[in-house]
Design goal:
Layout: H1 14-23, E1 27-31, H2 35-43, E2 48-51, H3 55-58, H4 70-83, E3 88-92, H5 102-114, E4 120-122, H6 130-138, E5 143-148, H7 154-157, H8 167-183, E6 187-191, H9 195-204, E7 209-212, E8 220-223, H10 225-228, H11 246-262, H12 277-291
Parallel strand pairs: 1-2, 1-8, 2-3, 3-4, 4-5, 5-6, 6-7, 7-8
Helix pairs in contact: 2-4, 6-8, 8-9
């Protein structure tokens, strides 16, 4: 069923998200990378499904997000948007897809909308992205901002570190947030910054802030699907709350399958298909003749 189907009245739009802030309703965002993760996330009530470039780490097993390509994001977006009936789907624009000029950025973001089926894109960076954000918004592509710890700046920042800890850095973050809002972004991710700074940005901005490692005062929160479900085996930052250990459950179930196969316990007679009785009798007779 399309988003124009019977669930249309429930579909979350960009303007509806802005209204959430005015109404004081929290926003729930989850990352999703494929059809099942999107279905699960949406059925669990996520308002926004972010096709995060975190897929580089949690799906591809890379050490960072920098190697994810545009083609890969488009492919993952198409799976997620096929599953989403109600949630807003946002493409996380990979490194180098919006850094080489406004035309390139427009074309690349446009692919995520046209081929990937998303309703919005996310770009990392504050004031320095204002022109880009305004250009995309002006050309009908809604944009989510992302400031603080921006993983695509990993090498420039010197690692995955909390940002905005000095007075100057905190003030710079506030300026960045307001510049992103002023440029026309509809929401803003605040990653790994002190709770006090996130609270001030949230109080000053009219667009919803969505925190990850930014304390409890944001208008919404996001976590990475694999982190919160216990499916990522790398280092988990302090701000991740693990709501389940599905990695252990999967390992245990897969192990039981392996044991059953080795011990001849899988499949059972009930799990096999059988010939009709008469065909089986004739088949056995032919087999006997063939072997005699
Ligand atoms: O790539 C991602 O998953 C993200 C979120 C953590 C905000 O950017």
């Amino acid at each position: 069923m399309s988003k124009m189907g019977s669930l249309a009245h429930e579909a979350i739009s960009v303007p509806a998200l802005r209204e959430r802030k005015a109404a004081g309703e929290r926003v729930v965002m989850l990352t999703a990378y494929d059809y099942p993760s999107a279905r699960l996330g949406e059925e669990a009530g996520a308002d926004i499904l972010l096709v995060g470039d975190s897929l580089g780490m949690v799906v591809q097993g890379q050490p960072d997000t920098l190697r994810v390509t545009l083609d890969q994001i488009v492919y993952h977006c198409s799976m997620v948007s096929r599953a989403a009936k109600r949630a807003l789907v946002v493409a996380d624009m990979p490194f180098l897809t919006y850094h080489t000029g406004l035309d390139d950025a427009m074309r690349n973001c446009g692919r995520c909308v046209q081929e990937g089926g998303v309703q919005a894109v996310k770009v990392e960076g504050g004031s320095k992205r204002a022109k880009l954000i305004a250009h995309l918004v002006d050309n009908e592509i809604p944009v989510m901002g992302h400031i603080g710890l921006t993983p695509q700046s990993l090498h420039a920042l010197g690692g995955f570190k909390v940002q905005g800890k000095t007075l100057e850095a905190a003030e710079a973050l506030l300026k960045d947030a307001l510049a992103v809002e002023e440029a026309g972004a509809f929401a803003l991710v605040l990653e790994c910054i002190p709770a006090e700074v996130a609270a001030e940005i949230t109080a000053r901005a009219k667009i919803p802030t969505i925190g990850i490692g930014a304390g409890p005062h944001c208008d919404g929160q996001v976590l990475v699907f694999h982190d919160l479900l216990g499916l990522y085996e790398g280092h988990l930052p302090r701000f991740v709350r693990k709501y389940g250990d599905f990695g252990a459950m999967m390992r245990e179930a897969l192990g039981r399958f392996g044991r059953d196969v080795r011990e001849g316990k899988f499949p059972s007679e009930e799990e096999a298909f059988h010939l009709p009785e008469e065909t089986s009798r004739l088949f056995a007779r032919e087999a006997r003749v063939a072997h005699s």
